[in-house]
Amino acid sequence: MTLLTKARSGVEGFDELVIGGLPRGQTILVTGGTGTGKSTFAMQFVYKGAKVYDEPGIYVSLEEKIPSVVRNASAYGWDLDALQKKDKIALIDLSPAVAGQIRKIDVTDIYSTISSQWKRIGAKRIVIDPITVLGLQTESLLQLRTDLIRFSSMLKELDATFLYVTEIPEDSQGLSRFGVEEFISDGVVVLYYSRVGGLRVRGVEVRKMRGTSHKEGTFPMKMGEGGLVVFPTGKLPKLS
Questions:
Q1: Model confidence, pTM
Q2: pLDDT tens digit sequence for 3-22
């Protein structure tokens, strides 16, 4: 029997929800509505992995340009450029928008680029942000599900832990943009930024996590100068 090992998330307090960290080698979906902190959570996972835990990481952007990614990270005091120079982080721009034109992106091409950088820096953490872009270029939900299953299968040939970022449309009761992403993922982490009375409250919920137990419920979270912080000893009412 193979002993399950875990990767520390880098998000203070979150690992207590998943009993020590995210299961290594698995694909974890980070989902939520607009402004919930999905990209921050994903980048914190990569940055802290490289900076604190000596685990190089890859951040693949399918939407935002890399200079913007670096600038946004610097707001939390995260120096991505310094880690890139040390080959601790690889930032990859695979946005379909190039010179005013929209190009078709394929999971095989994405995997090939990731695999090359994985070998170069010995990456242990890989983020795809957002996986939503693949769905926007796919003709049917069946094809999207097939592509994501194939993509996940290829990625799992690499020795790393993977975070997919997706979104929940406003007023949706689902867990993802297309309703298939959560089914091809080993774990699902839902982020909230919801109104409670006259205030907006941040929260996080682990909806599933294969291979490990996890705390149930929605827990308070804040976004501060150093990134996201989770408070695992308190619970919030059900958020949406």
A1: 0.95
A2: 679 999 999 999 999 999 99
